Amino acid sequence: MIEDIKKTILPNGVRVVTEHVGYVQSVSVGIWVATGSRYEDDSHRGISHFLEHMLFKGTEKRPSAKQIADDMDAVGGYLNAFTDKEYTCYYARALSEHLPLAVDILTDMYAHSLFDPEETTRERKVVLEEIKRREDDPDDLVHDLFAETIFPDHPLGKSVIGLAEVVDGLTPEELRSYMSKYYGPGSVIVSVAGNMEHAQVVDLVSNALGDLKGGSPTPGDARPPVTAKRFEYARPTEQVNFCIGTKGYGQFDEDRYALALMDAILGGSMGSRLFQEIREKRGLAYSVGSYSATHREGGYFVAYGGTSPDTYEQCLELAQGEFDKVRRDGVTEAELNRAKNQFRGALIMAQESMSSRMNRIGKSEVYYDRVIPMSEVTALIDKVTLADVHRVAGSIFPENPAEYAIAAVGPFNGVTKPEGEEEGGE
Description:
- The structure is a single chain.
- The chain is about 45% helix and about 20% strand.
- The protein is an alpha+beta fold.
- The protein has 2 domains: about 5-210, Cytochrome Bc1 Complex, Chain A, domain 1, CATH 3.30.830; about 230-410, Cytochrome Bc1 Complex, Chain A, domain 1, CATH 3.30.830.
- The protein has a 6-stranded mixed beta sheet with strand order 1-2-6-3-5-4, sandwiched between helices.
- A hairpin with a 4-residue loop joins strand 4 (about 80-85) and strand 5 (about 90-95).
- Helix 3 runs parallel beside helix 8 (about 200-210), helix 9 packs across helix 15 and helix 12 (about 335-350) runs antiparallel to helix 14 (about 375-380).
- The relative contact order is 0.17.
């Protein structure tokens, strides 16, 4: 597949990366900033996520959130954002003819937000409600709690949404100061995919962000230590939502590709081992699967599911049993080939979405300072062997069941929190 990807670095360090796709009539535009919750200290836990909200609340040019929304709605476009542990993205989708407006709205929000005190107070309530909602959604909460359990002493273990007591005290001055410290031009990547010309995007971004100033976070390089503990959080639910996992790989470990294929085999589809064993064969869960969390310095591999309290322990044992089978015996050639086809199919089909293309090139720039060609990715996937998967399984899956990290949310008798955490959760 031929990719028409171009990159320009502005004099102040802002990166502009585009992928021209001539057969569509739309564009997807993203402003990526290479900072997220993992760079926050305890006194700012949740500020990146709060900033994401506040950038939609008014600028000098568009004084209100309604004005921002109306300007995008008027051309049938879409505007949103998301915050992760190592990056934040503000993005828009629009017809190609409205590219200048999409870039103008996003860059205006990024560079000229007002942080009005009344809007800050109002949006703080919204974020606090979002934190409460997380507590009421065990299917979502358990994944945050698993990260806290396996990485208790590392920023990657902290949730993106933050702490209510911190968010409740954040002021407009703190928001401006934090943005000046971490959201400078060296952190910024503007990625665009769709029917547009690279030179036009560079001109638009240069005019809007060419004078942007500010600092950038220093990426970490210490692999987070993995902690094997069981963390059971009592909530009045009908099911137990659980995660069980172990160490994984970082963005710069080539073995992450073997792990990705093993993930597909174990829990990535309806034909996967965990789905077939726990749901289809035994009927113990509606939702069951696995995933690999891959960050800059390291990551983890986890299986998850939701089951009745009386079958919770059985599901943990079944998941461990599937891990043990791969550690002892590896996988079959048929399974590996199927996983490669799944990976390749998902990668190629995602190219049909301009948003997926924009996300891919933006995220690639965040981690690697370049866009990794799809041909390179598929070549690395194709070269993974049965021996590679077996070796990776032997490296990450422990023989002793007590060496797995486990987090669960359900109708337990009490609350067991990781060491150093207060009862009741974040």
